[in-house]
Amino acid sequence: MAVRQSLGAAVVKWLCPTSRQTARVVTVHRSPSGRIVSVYVEAQTADGPRALFFFRHADRGWQVFPPETMRPSMGLGRVAA
Question: What number is the average pLDDT over the span 6-26?
Answer without folding.
Answer: 87
